[in-house]
Amino acid sequence: MKLPVYFVSHGGGPWPYIPEMQASNARLAASLADIPRQIGSKPNAILMVSAHWETRGAFAVMGSPSPSMLYDYYGFPAHTYEIQYPAPGSPELAGRVAQLLSDAGLAADTDTTRGFDHGAFVPAFVMYPEADVPMVQLSIDAGYDPALHLSAGRALAPLRKEGVLIVGSGLSYHNLRQIYGGGSAASAQFDAWLQQVLLDAPPEQRAGLLERWTSAPAARLAHPREDHLIPLMVAAGAAESDAAACVYHESQAFAGITASSFRFG
After folding, report:
1. pTM score of the predicted model
2. DSSP 88-110
């Protein structure tokens, strides 16, 4: 069985752990919670490509058997700095990921000290609240080269037949300085382009269009710094010939922006 691949918009901060934020993220929560049903069986492991882990010059793979927590947000209630998501790591999967990348000519190192950041543990908690699926994180490269990350996804595609769920975790819109200003219009324009590229364009044309994402309407207004878009490139590369479906779409998500998540395969 070949598992699908996902790119998910992970929302803002540790929202599932804050009652006041749960209502405004109810549709996002429902979409994430539905992923196990869509897959049909529990995966052997999750490979999470989070926008919140950047390395330069080589990809890094989380290698700890018991990853710690990384509270990479600020200004939230005190209890959110005590969250535990005790999913085990998988040094075996980390080694497999590093080897696949290396075999494709992509530099990769193993990091045994890295903990789960909120781009990983937030969606994972909603998907698998029992924390009973091993999870390994893969960094993105700080150069943000779309072609490089598409290539990384292609290299990792064999994992789909090995029971590994590949999830790119970011946001379809990420401009925090404008989120309460022009974010509504810019996010809608860029999201419409994403929908067209991912859902309507032939899969064989998808990579080329994604590589040229800066030519999309409102591209730099939606992603002045494309860290939250780059995980999409890995997901799309891992499912290059597969059709895509939109599994979450909200035109009035938190702060009034348009946000979407996608499944490939």
Report:
1. 0.97
2. ---HHHHHHHHHHHHHTT--EEE
Q: For residue range 86-116, what is the model confidence (pLDDT) as tens digits?
A: 999 999 999 999 999 999 999 999 999 999 9
pLDDT in tens, 115-161: 999 999 999 999 999 999 999 999 999 999 999 999 999 999 999 99
Query: Hey, which residues does 138 pair with through a beta bridge?
Result: 49, 61
Q: Which helix (H) or strand (E) holds 186?
A: helix 183-195
Nearest Cα to Cα of residue 119 among 101, 142, 139 = 139
Q: Which CATH architecture has domain 5-174+226-264?
A: 3-Layer(aba) Sandwich (3.40)
Cα–Cα distance for residue pair 222/214, rounded to 1 Å: 10
Sheet bearing 45-55, strands edge to edge? 108-111, 59-62, 135-141, 45-55, 164-170, 5-9, 259-264, 244-250
Tokens representing 113 are: 């000290």
Domain-by-domain residue ranges, the chain?
A: 5-174+226-264
pLDDT for 180 equals 67
Q: Which residue has the tokens 């395969």?
A: 265
Tokens 């810019």, residue located: 186
In whole angstroms, what is the distance from residue 33 CA to residue 13 CA? 18
